[in-house]
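Tutorial, part two.
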Amino acid sequence: MTSAPLSSHRLVSYYWSGDLIRSRSVSGRVPTATLDIPEPPPRLVADWAREIASNLVLEPGDVEQMPLARTMTRWPEYRACLRAMQDWTGTLGLGEVLACGDLALMACRGARYHHDGMQYGGAAFCNLFVSDDKGLDLIYPGTGQRIALKRGTAVLFDTCQPHGVVPRGASRFDENDFPDSRELSQLFLTWELPIEDPRVAAALDIVFDIDPAAAQCHEEQVRRGGTRLGVRPDSGIWEPVT
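Running the prediction step on this input gives:
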């Protein structure tokens, strides 16, 4: 897409594109849907629980990668999840881009508010939640969206858009809301999609090369008005990085 004037109020992502740092806009679009996907078998759910307890030792707010190969082997209907996501992203104009994206299985026990633009500024994330509803919401404080997490919840979003997972009805992340006595982990499939793919950029309305001085940056980051920003982990509010 064509460039636009750089505003002091506009969020800008600086990301690696090959050997160069480019700039782009930060999308406020978060397409979401609830897809009809099969229930994971009890044996697999038990395997996930053992992995989380024994190897991940998932603490409140953590988001960690899970072994995907075992899930593919032990879930005969796993490919139905892939088909459902392919069909949904097709309605967003993404065509076959999902099939080319890097796929991983992740687990979270809630999630502190964060953005991923310091590592994945050149990507969009496309997530499909496969766990049952445990009373948790995915929140994008910058857009005002609150999405109930349940089996089949699908989202596409800009990695630079702040997000977190908190109990339903709450807005702030608090570790005390995730006691050891409750099983509150959520499993989700996630695809890393190239933000420079024209179909991904169009779906999220991304504008590129909005800061001519981008080449002066030496690492991925998000800025506004020339100030480098981070996210408060409890509220998702942008704040200067010192």
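The two ends are 32 Å apart (CA to CA). In part three we will examine how such features are distributed along the chain.
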